[in-house]
Design goal:
heterodimer; A: 421 residues; alpha/beta; Rossmann fold; six-stranded mixed β-sheet; four-stranded antiparallel β-sheet; 16 strands; 21% strand; globular; B: 314 residues; mainly alpha; ABC transporter involved in vitamin B12 uptake, BtuC; two-stranded antiparallel ribbon; 4 strands; 69% helix
């Protein structure tokens, strides 16, 4: 099993992680010998990683190879990959698929669990579709197409995303100039970022996770203090404002981790709908909450945003990921925001919920909102964005029109090949 | 103030004596926390070790049995913490603190029951000193390490053994993996709970040995609350030593030296200015705060330290 969240011990070496639990040979830990053994294994399957490197020092793409080595080391004939490409760059994905094909040709059995149709079409021989815990169809890859698979996954035809109705307006809603910020570890995360987003426009920010996306969103929201630069909403510099003041200027935020930043899981749907609005009318008067209004508001939004079950008293922790995200959307989008900062809005969602989120974002764009869409899903970025900015090591290395942003070009830019611009 | 008062053989010998119980507690802390369990009950383990060591020495007149009983008592107390922390997944700070209070009350109560107001007997079997004959005559060195207690030397040996165990053996590798990423350890077939139980029991043994050192090597008696927070100082030494046995030993020596100085500089003065001994003796603790606050380099606990492990689906 190659887990979606790697089962690796960060401070230990590659070789130590591979042999952990099945070290062979006496109780003494002979580092050289286990490294030799891992090197031998790598040679046999054509997988390259430095056995003496520490896990915490190597990129996610290599960490995944360590996961594969762990399984091969134990002599498994059956390998299960759980969403293996979620954290990889397009180049790393290609390399992974090379390894996958090699293993297949070696006679191993591989199961690939994924929600990405492109991957299914690229490497599989046969496909089983699961829907609602049931087998919803078996297909042979050679004889099928993405449309048929999607139909089996959702149980109906997917809607075509509507082509844009109105062109973006000229009014600049968000202007970022020379923005610099440090990461939690103190290293530079943003090194001079410039861009603007207009009303009625979606600017996609593409990039491999960890190139400054989180810090960018946090700076705009006031969750992180920039070390230099300006962030303007209209004519006002908000770079020193706290989230409350930023939100008061019409900024909404759909955070990348809805459990960590988006929701209080132990709260009811109705209570999560009013987070951030709890201290003023109509939800509170003189510092006292008005439960009737809160509940009525919860019921209305739950129905409007299709939260299932549409019960404002339901505990958010008990909802599915898609419905939790609808609660976040309902809270953030229901007050006609001028600017929406959206980070990884469909991470971990199924295809129907993803479609729903995308529709809602396009609807906001149609109503004139400026949207900054941060996502590591290239398909999502390309489907929604009017323009795409590629973030690499804290800088925007290129900004492309959606029409000219092919997947290959974006992939090269995300990997730091700026000549592709 | 003289050099003799600063780094004389007497001061260094005192440093070793004072560092030993702290180092033993710190070693216990290293093992427990490397496996992912915070054991602040080390203070209580030391105290029951000190007390039951005295009781066993009094009844059996055997030092070996006394130490065995002391360590068993520490392991029992640590075992209670292990059940609470690992099996019942309770808050490890609350459980540890409760056991510290229990240990204090229990030993005071039993001390009074057994020995009344007269105090523990004067003729207790004591842990002997190790006389290194060839060294005893050598100036300075002989005065520092020529006649230290057996447990002082035992501590040095334990530091080396545990350092080797943690970083050069397969069980040590597994223990560290459990403390860093228990789920990863479990997916490769390592028993997370079993590993943590052994680690917590070992931490109790070590801390109790430190307590027995106080009562059977230094004081030759038991008095209420005689460990005086050394278990907690051991935890500070563990952090200061970055969760490694050798680091913990060095940190314990710093603390021991600070305390030794505050004794030797009693009444000393520089010119006309009295040396502020009380202020000086706070130095180790100031260093600890700086270490914990991250000013003295990177000091990072094991990633899953103090987090109860829950198997999936529970």
């Amino acid at each position: 099993m190659i887990h979606q969240h790697f089962m690796l011990v960060p401070p230990l070496s590659v070789a130590e992680n591979v042999v952990l639990g099945d070290e062979r040979g006496g109780p003494a830990l002979d580092r050289r010998r286990i490294e030799d053994r891992v090197r031998e294994l790598e040679k046999r399957f054509g997988i390259e990683v430095d056995p003496s490197a520490r896990i915490e020092d190597i990129p996610l793409g290599l960490q995944q190879r360590v996961e594969i080595l762990k399984v091969l080391y134990r002599g498994s004939e059956l390998l299960i990959f759980d969403e293996p490409t979620a954290v990889l760059t397009p180049l790393e994905v290609d390399e992974l698929f090379e390894i996958v094909r090699t293993l297949r040709d070696e006679g191993k059995t591989l199961i690939l669990i994924t929600h990405k149709l492109r991957e299914v079409m690229a490497v599989t021989d046969r496909i089983t579709v699961l829907r609602g815990g049931q087998n919803a169809g078996e297909l042979v890859t050679r004889n099928t197409n993405p449309g048929e698979i999607a139909r089996a996954m959702v149980g109906r035809d997917l809607k075509e995303l509507k082509a844009r109705a109105t062109p973006p307006r000229t009014e600049v809603v968000l202007a970022v100039r020379g923005l610099e910020a440090r990461s939690d570890r103190g290293s530079p995360a943003l090194r001079g970022v410039d861009f603007e987003v207009r009303a009625g426009e979606i600017l996609g920010v593409a990039g491999v996770g960890g190139n400054g996306q989180s810090e960018l969103a946090q700076c705009i929201l006031g969750l992180r203090r920039p070390s230099a630069g300006a962030i303007r909403i209209g004519d006002v510099d908000i770079s020193k404002d706290d989230p409350k003041r930023t939100r008061a200027r019409g900024v909404a935020y759909v955070p990348e981790d809805r459990h960590l930043e988006g929701l209080v899981l132990a709260f009811t749907v109705a209570d999560d709908f009013i987070l951030g609005k709890q201290d003023h009318a109509p939800f509170a008067r003189h510092g006292v909450l008005d439960p009737v209004t809160i509940l009525r508001n919860g019921g209305r939004l739950a129905a409007e945003y299709d939260v299932r079950p549409p019960n404002p008293r339901a505990i958010v922790a008990n909802l599915s990921g898609g419905n939790q995200q609808k609660v976040v959307l309902g809270r953030e989008l229901s007050e006609r925001p001028k600017l929406i900062v959206v980070s990884q809005p469909t991470r971990g969602l199924d295809i129907a919920a993803t479609e729903y989120v995308h529709e809602r974002l396009l609807e906001q764009r149609g109503q004139g909102a400026a949207i900054l869409l941060v996502s590591s899903e290239l398909d999502e970025i390309r489907a929604l964005s009017d323009r795409i900015a590629v973030l690499f090591e804290g800088r925007i290395v290129a900004t492309l029109d959606a029409a000219s942003a092919t997947e290959e070009r974006l992939g090269l830019l995300m990997a730091g090949h700026s000549e592709a611009a | 103030m003289t050099w003799e008062q600063l780094i004389g053989a007497g001061v260094l010998a005192a440093m070793l004596r004072l560092a030993t119980p702290i180092a033993l507690a710190a070693l216990g802390g290293v093992i427990a926390e490397r496996s992912g369990v915070v054991n602040i009950a080390l203070e209580g383990c030391m105290l029951v070790g000190a007390f039951f060591g005295v009781v066993a020495a009094d009844r059996t007149h055997s030092v070996v049995l006394a130490l065995a009983v002391a360590m068993a008592a520490g392991a029992v107390l640590a075992g209670v913490h292990a059940v609470a922390a690992i099996h019942l997944r309770s808050d490890q700070i609350v459980s540890g603190m409760a056991l510290n209070i229990l240990a204090l009350g229990l030993t005071s109560f039993l001390d009074y029951q057994f020995y009344g107001n007269t105090g523990t007997p004067a003729d207790l079997a004591a842990v002997p000193d190790v006389e290194i004959a060839p060294l005893a005559a050598v100036p300075f060195i002989g005065d520092v390490i020529g006649h230290q207690n057996t447990i002082v030397w035992l501590t040095v040996v334990l530091v080396v053994l545990i350092q080797v165990f943690l970083f050069r053996t397969v069980p040590g590798l597994r223990l560290r993996a459990v403390g860093e990423h228990p789920r990863a350890a479990e997916t490769v077939g390592i028993g997370v709970r079993r590993t943590r139980y052994w680690a917590v029991l070992a931490s109790g043994l070590l801390a109790a040995l430190g307590g027995a050192y106080l009562s059977l090597s230094v004081a030759h008696s038991f008095t209420d609350g005689m460990t005086g927070g050394r278990g907690f100082i051991g935890l500070a030494a563990m952090i200061f030593g970055r969760w490694t046995p050798i680091g913990a030993l060095v940190a314990s020596l710093v603390f021991g030296y600070g305390t030794a100085l505050s004794f030797s500089l009693q009444g000393a003065s520089i010119g006309d200015v009295r040396v502020p001994v009380q202020l000086l003796s706070t130095l180790p603790y100031v260093l600890t705060i700086l270490a914990v606050a991250g000013f003295v380099g990177r000091s990072r606990p094991p990633a899953s330290d103090g987090i109860p492990y829950e198997t999936e689906g529970h």
